[in-house]
Each structure stands twice: as C-alpha cells, then as structure tokens.
Amino acid sequence: MKVKDEQKYDRLIAAAIDLLAAGGLANFSTTKVAKQAGIPQSNVYIYFKNKQSLLEAVFQATVHTESVAVAAAIDDNAELAEQLAMSIRALYDFALAQPAVVTALQVLTEDVALKQKFALKADDTANQKIQHLLTTGVTQNILQPVDLNLLRYFLTRPIFHYAEGRRHGLYSATTTSIDELVVMVMGAVLQPTPFQTWLQAQSE
Amino acid sequence: MKVKDEQKYDRLIAAAIDLLAAGGLANFSTTKVAKQAGIPQSNVYIYFKNKQSLLEAVFQATVHTESVAVAAAIDDNAELAEQLAMSIRALYDFALAQPAVVTALQVLTEDVALKQKFALKADDTANQKIQHLLTTGVTQNILQPVDLNLLRYFLTRPIFHYAEGRRHGLYSATTTSIDELVVMVMGAVLQPTPFQTWLQAQSE
Amino acid sequence: MKVKDEQKYDRLIAAAIDLLAAGGLANFSTTKVAKQAGIPQSNVYIYFKNKQSLLEAVFQATVHTESVAVAAAIDDNAELAEQLAMSIRALYDFALAQPAVVTALQVLTEDVALKQKFALKADDTANQKIQHLLTTGVTQNILQPVDLNLLRYFLTRPIFHYAEGRRHGLYSATTTSIDELVVMVMGAVLQPTPFQTWLQAQSE
Amino acid sequence: MKVKDEQKYDRLIAAAIDLLAAGGLANFSTTKVAKQAGIPQSNVYIYFKNKQSLLEAVFQATVHTESVAVAAAIDDNAELAEQLAMSIRALYDFALAQPAVVTALQVLTEDVALKQKFALKADDTANQKIQHLLTTGVTQNILQPVDLNLLRYFLTRPIFHYAEGRRHGLYSATTTSIDELVVMVMGAVLQPTPFQTWLQAQSE
DNA sequence: GATGAATGAGGTTTCATTCAT
DNA sequence: CATGAATGAAACCTCATTCAT
C-alpha cells in the first residue's frame, strides 16, 4: 500500500487539505480529492487504504507542519513565558501564511465522528518540543496546573479562531490586535503571579 | 411554512440535534433525520424548505436554549465579574445536562461551509442579556477592550471543550477542575487589575 | 368539480400558460402552477380533475383565444386569398402581442405524449370560421387540394416559428421580413395560378 | 469521458431516442433510459456528465443521421431546385424509415427550455453540404432571399409533420400525397419564377 | 502499479394526488 | 369549499469501493 510515486501521494494530501479547508468534512470526497489532484479516482486506493486512511494522513501532515513552524520560531534561550508568547505569535503567523493547513487541521480535530480516533505520531520531535515546554511550565509553577491538553487548547484554538476572523473580516487590527489576543491567552494559561511578571516585562 | 402539527416539527429538530451531535455534519442527512423522527423522508420538506433551512432552525433552537439556560443562572445583583463567572459555570452545567444540544451547536458554528451563514435572531432576549453584560464590562474597563465576538469565544468554546473532555474521560475532576477552568477563562477576558480583584474575592 | 370561484380558475389557467411558455411541459407541475397563481396546491384539484385535465383546459383556452384574434382580423369582403394573407399577418401580430399564449399552445400541440389526445371543441365559432375559409378555398381551386390539417399547419406553424425567431433575435426585419414570410406561406398553400394572381395584386 | 465500452454508449443513445420519441421530454429520465438500456442508472453518469449532456449527444447523433441520409440522396448533377425536391423526398423516406430518430430530433429542437442551447457540430460534412445548397440557391436567385434558418424550417418541419401524420393515420396517400407536399414546400422556398420553371419540368 | 468501468446505496428534492378538518 | 398535511414514488446526481485489464 505504500507509495510508489511519492509525488502523487503528496499531491493527494495537498488536494485533500485544500478541499477540507474549502468545504469541511461534509463536502469532502475521494472523488473530489482525486479530481483536484488531477489523478484518476481509483488511484486514491493505491496510496491509501480508504477514505479514513487518507484523512488520517492529512491529520498527521498538518499537525506536523504546524508543530515544525511553531517550534522553529521559539527562542530556546528566552524565558519560558516569553517562549509561549512566541509560540502564539508563530502560530498566528503560520495561520495567516498557510490558512488551508490550519483550517484543515481544525476541521479534522473538531469533527465529532473522528474525535480522538487519530493517534498523534509519538515520534514527532517538533511536537515533542512544545509538549516539553508545557510540562516544564507546569512543573515550575509558571503555567496553570491543569491537563496539558487544556493548556494546548488555549494556546491553539483561540489563535486559529482569531486568524480566521482576521482573514474573513470579522476582526480587524484596530478593534482587536494580535497583541491583545496574546495577553488574553497568556492570562489564561499563566498562573496569576507569573502573568503579572510577564505583563510588566512586556511594558518595559 | 405555517405549522399545524408542532409535535412533528419539534421531533424533527430534536432528531436533527441528536444526529448532529452523534455524527457531525458529514453524517447528517434529511433521510436519517426523518428516520430518527419516525417520519417519511419527504415530510421533512413540509416543515422545512430544504436541508439548509432545517439546519438553520436547529441553530436558532440550540442558541436559544443555551442562552436561556445561561441567562437564567446569572444573578443580576452580583458584581459584573462574578456574573461572568456564573455564566461560565452555568454553561458548563448546561453542557453536561444537554450534551447533544451543545455539541450540535458547536458542529454548526464550527463548520467551514456554514460559517457566518446563519444570522442570529435579533429578538432573542436571553441572548441580548449576555451581549449587554459584555458591552457593559468593556465600557467599565473590566473586560479586555476587544471585539465582543472574541470575548464570547473565550467564554464559550473552552467550556464546551472542557465539558466534552469530561464526558469522554479526557479530563477528570482531579487533574483539571471546573474551578481551574473558570480561573483560566477569567484570566483571559478580564483586564489584569479586575482579574486580581476578582481572584482575591474568590479566596475569601 | 366545476368552478365556484371563477377568478381562481382563470388565474390557474393564466399561470399554466405562463409556465408552459417559460419552461415547456417538462418543467410544468401542478405545484408550480399553484404557486404562480398564488393558490394553495391542493386547490388545483378543486378546479381540475387532475394535471391532464388542467392541460386540456389550457389547450382549449389558447386555441380559442388565438382563433378569435385571427377571425376578428379577417375582412369578409376581401378576396379569399387576401383573407388568408390577413390571417397570416393577424396570427403574427397575435404571436407578438401574446407570446405566452402562442408558445403554450405550441408546446401542447407539439408534445408527443399528448398529441391528438385533445379534442377540439366543436362549438368554437371563431375556429369554425377559419375552417370554413379553408374548405371554400379548396372547393374553389384556390388552395392546394390537400387535407385541411396540412393547410392549417402551413398557415400557423411557420408563423409561430418566425414570430418566436423575431422575439429571440434569430430573425430580424432586415434579413427576413414578415412580408417575405407571407409570400412563402402563400406560395405553399395557394395553387400556382391563384398564387401568381395574388402576387400581381400585391405589387400593384 | 473516454469510452471503452462503446456498445453501452450506443445503447444509451438508442434508448434515449426511443424514449424521447415515445414520451417526449416530459417523460424522459435517466432512470428510464438506463432501464431501457439494461444498465444500472448510475452508469449513465459514466458515459455522460449529466442528463443535459446525454440529451446533447442525442441531438448530435440524430442531426447527423438525418443529414447523412438526406445528403446521400441528393444527386449532385441535378438542377438545384431538383436537388431540393430530392432532399424533401429523402427526408420523408427517412422519417418513415426511422421515425424514432426524427421524432426525437423534433422533440429536442422544439423544446422551449432547450431551444438554441444545443450548438450544431461545425464539422458535420453532411450538414454542411445541405447548408451549401441553400446558400447557392439564394445567391442564384432561385430560393427566396430569406434567412437560411427559415428556408431550412420549411424544408424540414412540414415534412416531419406530414410523415408523422401518415404514420398515425391523420393523412393518407389519397387525401394528401407526398407529391403534393413537395409542391407546397417548393412553392414556399422557391422564388415565383423558378417555381414555375420547376413545375413545368415536373409535368413533362 | 495504474486505470477506466462498474455498481448499489444513499442523498436532496419535487411531484401528483389524497385526506381530514 | 378550502386548505394544510401527508405520502410514496421517482427524479438527478455523487459516492466509496472493487475489479479486470
């Protein structure tokens, strides 16, 4: 089942991302993916076992792309809180640069029927780095002592939402800036005292 | 579109909610809705112009139910910050009590293809009450001075996410309590100083 | 089954004519007729036994309207050939004045499934007058000695076709005038010698 | 849309022609076509993009068949007027030999909703030949100086009408012969003088 | 491995007609 | 008589998946 022509494989993934971003899961079909990729319909089943399997691959690909973009933007030498702020801004930039990837990822993550069906690849180093950042933050009493999934939720979903809102004109830089969003997210994930500290560091 | 037999209308809405909650938009069909409601499929078109129109009705119904539940739980005499905290808890209770309604609402709100296609009914008084709360909060420099949509996002989505996580075992009361979630959300939406004030009021 | 509210009856007929003219039999339905007439769907079955019966009534109505218009325009004192020419021009004027009626009639007459299912009302005096004209013409060796139906075909269909062509820009007055069409039709229905005579009378 | 199994394609076209001839556009459906062709309904969409596209293919096929039959019967060495007379008789013979093809073509040509939606294939040589005949006739002052579409109308529709009338008993050889029809059509399309000339040539 | 063909199920919508009120 | 509701059939079209070449 694996990959003779890697170029076609990639084209299928890319087409699937575009399709998901444009119409959501409800309008997603192997037929459309193949057409968009310029590949015969039945070829989808050479590269993927079935529709579900294709979606899983899309999930892995988008998570990975996003993690890499975010991890790359983090300065390891900065304060932990500052590293988080950086990750938020990086995610925002990424969401503006690659809206389809982000939207596709959101579609897949949000879907009721697929929820938690997808297992994250354990060996994604970029992903691990971010995970490590959170663990450390909790241990050092900088971050709220809650489940990492919840922290991650606050650090991603609102940013996706805001980025999409900006792209579609729901938000504008004047009514709601990215700086304000960063403050809000930091206010949620940081413990009160580190939050104050971080705020003062910002205003200097 | 005048409806005599309101009972069937209601059954269709209820069936649609259940279906959306169970399978998302991708697995939603008028055929299934009708079957679930125990009604011939073509009857759906007596009560609704088309599929889209049915979804719109579901949207209105779920928004309304949720707004009512939340608005009812708010004590008008409490401090504004405290009213917000109440609304968060009310929303959480509602999400646990009526998970299907909340999930259906989320499915409809989150969908790429439908996004912002649905117009909120302007005359929903429960909804207006919450909107008013936010406006006042911003004017009085208690809430972050951002677009009301973004405030509302923070005040709903994370709660839905957490409630669903609790229901599915992703979160448990010991690793992450609702109290902690309330603090996080308040940290996001309140301005730093009112946040501090509110925190102290909590610990007393 | 017959007609309490004659106004609604007429509205249904008129709506049916418009519908047939706009979309042909393939897009004709009792649902659409009722909607166009602003009348509840099920009311169609008060005024007409069924769809077929409604179409039959439309047929009678359109044939009658057309016959009256044509018959009224014929000068009984003119030469027989000239009377025919008048009828051609009258039909053309009528087709331009009431395109929907003419098109609906054509749709009904041309349809394979209905063909010759409709019996012409025998008591239509306007219709009888034209029929009489043709009989006389054949008897007097002015018209070609063929079946009256065929004469009538030549005296109507090409005119409908031309009128519609004019309305839709297929023909224009400069490339093909109504005068030329009259000559062609007269050339078809008149016997050669009367045709020559008629032609000379024209040029004087 | 490349077709391997041309046999099924042809069967679909043939089934469509029969269906159109039997019931007109109003009773035409892909379901029925498929059933008549002995093929699953969804297979229609392997060979044709949609219903409209199937009808277009039927149109091309019938026009082509008819043009070929007519063109083949024309003796290039005969007088132009005589060639036209030949084409009329050829069309009549064709209409008797292949009534379904002719009726289907008429149904498609006459329909209000489809009118002028179908583009004639420019590369149909048989069709071109007839068109050339008409152009020449007009240039040489043999045919009436009108739009070619109108000439073509007179040279086809009445013949179809007559042939169908014969088949259904509306006309019989004794009341109205094909010879008489030829004279009528020639009287319509020829200019008066060539018409006289042609008539005399006939009686010799 | 690649591809066009095949297929049966399912989806949305419209319809003609009937019925109860 | 008028009308909204009801219904089952049928229409068009798309899909996921399999198969033969």
From TrEMBL, chains A, B, C, D:
Natural source organism: Lactiplantibacillus fabifermentans DSM 21115
One Pfam family cited in the UniProt record for this chain: TetR_N
GO molecular function terms attached to this record: DNA-binding transcription factor activity; transcription cis-regulatory region binding
Annotated ranges, domain HTH tetR-type: 6-66
Highest rank taxon of the organism: Bacteria
InterPro entries: Homeodomain-like_sf (IPR009057), HTH-type_TetR-like_transc_reg (IPR050109), HTH_TetR (IPR001647)
DNA-binding region: 29-48
DNA-binding listed as a keyword: yes
Keywords assigned: DNA-binding, Transcription, Transcription regulation
Gene3D superfamilies: Tetracycline Repressor, domain 2
Protein name per UniProt: HTH tetR-type domain-containing protein
Cited PANTHER family: HTH-TYPE TRANSCRIPTIONAL REGULATOR BETI (PTHR30055:SF234), HTH-TYPE TRANSCRIPTIONAL REGULATOR RUTR (PTHR30055)
